Amino acid sequence: MKKIKVLNLHAGIGGNRKMWDSEKYEVTAVEWCEDLAEVYQKWYPNDKVIVGDANEYLAKNYEEFDFIWASPSCTTHSKIRFMASKSKENRKYDAKLPNMELYSFIVFLQNFCKDKKWVVENVKPYYTPIIEPNKTLGRHIFWCNFDFEEKCFENPDTNHVNVTGKTNRFGISLEGIKIKQRKDQVIRNCVNPEMGKHIIDSAFPEVKGEHSAYKGGQL
Fold it and tell me: Most buried by CB count within 10 Å: which residue of 133, 145, 192, 216?
């Protein structure tokens, strides 16, 4: 039984990965922050975790994988930060230019990974996307080279703006875990695990139970 090789870029603490079937998927995760990578490794001990730059790892290793998920930093694209930095009277953040690394991943995957399944996830931006996304799920937009159903997922008990470092969201909590990053921000960045499962399983609809028929990017 051959497992599908998955590359999970900008993995964070693995919200998108929480419901991926380890019997189906062999996951390599890349996360630049050592603290978050340690949490990820503790929660998913069977995954290979790389502490490093997602851009470099993708460019050097993309040919090894059947499925690639990328979640580049969304902070400078978000409507919430834009509104909070635009106001002169109640400015909460400094204005920042949007990090266009997001589009670098999309262009690379579109041109180098046509024989693989891939998806890039981000929030709905405050500007018109430079490259039109393929799908929208809730507050997330996706660029991808396969189809999946646009469906609604149950909202978490705690609203996005009310998340704290002690919040348990999507069954994910950092309470009692020491990290240097802001816990509330890390939890907010987690993709709904049900959404993550829906997307990766949609990429391989014929892979059920025993999936030895899957070979190198084709079913």
Answer: 192
